[in-house]
């Protein structure tokens, strides 16, 4: 598929954390304010939850779900 300029394949867009988030489950992603996360599609669309995104933290390549309202698009 086509990719946006400079984004790795499969990346929908990037967000920056505006608040710290500590995961509450093993499939979630923890991050600190300022961390950049690449938003990707869910492997299984049935897992998608309202208000949550699937992403990969750029600094560690960890993957997990996180609350969208803790981040903003960049």
UniProtKB/TrEMBL annotation:
Query: What residues does the SH3 domain cover?
Result: 10-74
One family from Pfam that matches here is SH3_1
Which is an annotated GO molecular function term of this record?
phospholipid binding
Among PROSITE patterns, the record links this protein to:
SH3
Tell me which UniProt keywords the record has, alphabetically: SH3 domain
CDD domains per the UniProt record, alphabetical: SH3_Amphiphysin (cd11790)
This protein's GO CC annotations: plasma membrane
Q: Say yes or no: keyword Manganese present.
A: no
Please name the InterPro entries in this protein's record.
Amphiphysin, SH3-like_dom_sf, SH3_domain
What is the designated name of this protein? Bridging integrator
User: Which species does the entry assign this protein to?
Assistant: Papilio xuthus
